[in-house]
Amino acid sequence: MHIEATDETIVLVIRFKIGGSLRFLSHAETLRVFQRACVRAGINLQYSSGFNPRPRMSLPLPRPVGVESDDELLTLRVYKGTGAQEHKGTDFYTNIHDNLSGQLPEGFKLISVNFVETRTPYQPRSVTYVFSVRPEFLDEKLKNRVNNLMASESLYLRRPINKIKSNFKDIDVRQFLGSIELEGGDIAVECGVSGAGSVRVQEVLELLELDEAMLALPVRRTNVQWRDV
User: Fold this and answer.
1) In the predicted model, is pLDDT for residue 2 greater than 70?
2) Which entry of 16, 68, 169, 197 is 20 to 30 Å from 8 by CA?
3) Phi and psi of 67, rounded to 5°?
4) Model pLDDT, residue 91
């Protein structure tokens, strides 16, 4: 499929999953995968102007490297179709979905393609991570840690503020912990996201006194709640 470029553009919202070895892709690498897939699918992306034009696409909530996700959101601006391809028509989205799905590598799964009226950037409100704990580490101490974390009024962690980790600041991450639920072997942690930031995946593991070797599966991001746009 090829959409003829006009002066008008529309904003598409693409939801997708990512798993397997592709969970190790960085934010920039994920964007490049979609850029190349769009080109191969014949989707006319809008690019920024200037010396080094870039596609007008965004991942509003970057996924931590190494984390699988059931609920990723990508926005991209494309040139509006002409003639029989009405941009709000069902066939338009079906074609975009099918053509783009066929160009994505294994490990990506497209969920939906939709049109959005507003061009206001998406802002996350909360995100849920699931930590699947190996059976031998599911004990009363872990249950008590979960209860104690939720009962705490403050939880200070030392966070590095530069890449070489030579400077640190103390952060109270309790404000970002919405809920922690232990069900079976899974711990679901809902983390608030605001202008002040959020709690990081490695920090959640630290609070739970776990490490990746104690997990049965990769950490998974299962749900993101977005502020009204």
Assistant:
1) no
2) 16
3) -100, 130
4) 67
